[in-house]
Amino acid sequence: MRILGIVVLGAALGGCAGSPVGDAIAGPEKLAQQDDAYCESIGAAKGTPQYTNCRLTVTQHRETKHNVVRGALLSQPDNSVVIINQRR
Fold it and tell me: How far apart are CA 86 and CA 72, in angstroms?
């Protein structure tokens, strides 16, 4: 059961943009493209202070989310993951 939970979590996180695993798979170039697109979509032009602030904020937000996920995984006593509402 424990191994199944870990496999399910890995599969779920691996396909999720914004997860540590999903972002690692995407790579830094893809993340930079996504961040560029987001910041430009809210009207921040490259080379402006607004763009720089946007990119910094997006990076900090991603790192904070990753740290929360890592902390939750590491806080499990046996380093396993508890799956709630699992269908049988």
Answer: 18
Report the half-sphere exposure of 59 (CA within 13 A, side-chain side). Answer: 10
Q: How far is CA 11 from CA 1, 6, 52, 59, in A?
A: 15, 9, 34, 24
**pLDDT tens, 69-88?**
888 877 776 655 555 554 54
The model carries a pTM of 0.62
User: Any idea what the Cα angle at residue 9 is, between residues 6 and 69, rounded to 5°?
Assistant: 105
Distance CA 9, CA 49 (A): 39
Identify whether the C-beta of residue 81 lies closer than 8 Å to the C-beta of residue 73: yes
Locate tokens 């902390």: which residue? 71
